[in-house]
Amino acid sequence: MLLEILKAILFGIVEGITEWLPISSTGHMILLDQVVKLNVSADFYKMFQVVIQLGAIMAVVILFWNKLWPFYMKKTGDSKKAAWKDGALAMWIKIIIACIPAAIVGLIFDDKIDELFYHPIPVAIALIVVGIVFIVVENAKKGSKPAIRSIGEITYKAAIIIGLFQLIAAVFPGTSRSGATIIGALIIGVSRSVAAEFTFFLAVPVMFGASLLKIAKYAAVGMAMTGTEWIVLIVGCLVAFFVSVFVIKFLMGYIKKHDFKVFGVYRIILGIAVIALSFVLF
């Protein structure tokens, strides 16, 4: 039991770091799974690697609660009632719009995508390609001033474009959801900090939806978690939450002074490593 808890802690650490940095949590989870095997059923692990993201997403909810929660208490006479914050409704509509493409594809083709692309070589190729794109986009944007400097300035058209980039990540594991949406945002002139922040916000409905889908499918086949599996899931989520808090704060501070090219270089190196190791481990 203790060994499985230690493994769950390690998975939580990796999830918490890689979910928010644009370096692909999927690629890292595949590598980690080959080195550190959880003593759980195959069906549970398929569910675990998605649901562990709930811990990471709760970090976003806590850190950005004031921006995400759309209501405030408005005083009217001697009473108070809930009212929409300025711009909150528009922001959430944009978030929903951006999530629709990935949600539709995920619901229809989830199992097929896993079957076709959730393998080391496709993931490695996605790591390398997106890494190169990061470097190219950052070089192209060097010296230019972003046209969009706040969440409120993101238009509905921009939200749709960012959503289409998120769709790419939904189809090709290893692309990195955060990486794809950040690239899409940078291309259309969104500042780095706003691109990262909007990516965090998009993660809330996407990850909750993906987790609920996996849990529903797990329950639909009549599977029941063992005591060890419950502990692994809870520990993994908790660790992912606490690590995510620090990683999100780090990233928001980092991109105020630096670009994303270092993550592009890291992705390329990791992709090459995955291809090399695939001939040994997989």
UniProtKB/TrEMBL annotation:
It comes from the Bacteria. Keywords: Antibiotic resistance, Cell membrane, Cell shape, Cell wall biogenesis/degradation, Hydrolase, Membrane, Peptidoglycan synthesis, Transmembrane, Transmembrane helix. One of its GO terms (biological process) is peptidoglycan biosynthetic process. One of its GO terms (cellular component) is plasma membrane. The chain crosses the membrane at residues 47-66, 87-109, 121-137, 158-176, 182-209, 230-252, 264-281. It is a multi-pass membrane protein. Its EC number is 3.6.1.27. It holds the Pfam family BacA. It is found in: Cell membrane. It catalyses: di-trans,octa-cis-undecaprenyl diphosphate + H2O = di-trans,octa-cis-undecaprenyl phosphate + phosphate + H(+). It is an enzyme of class 3 (hydrolase). The keyword Hydrolase applies. One of its GO terms (molecular function) is undecaprenyl-diphosphatase activity. Catalyzes the dephosphorylation of undecaprenyl diphosphate (UPP). Confers resistance to bacitracin. Bacitracin is thought to be involved in the inhibition of peptidoglycan synthesis by sequestering undecaprenyl diphosphate, thereby reducing the pool of lipid carrier available. HAMAP family: Undec_diphosphatase. Belongs to the UppP family. This is Undecaprenyl-diphosphatase. It comes from Lachnospira eligens (strain ATCC 27750 / DSM 3376 / VPI C15-48 / C15-B4) (Eubacterium eligens). The lineage of its organism: Bacteria, Bacillati, Bacillota, Clostridia, Lachnospirales.
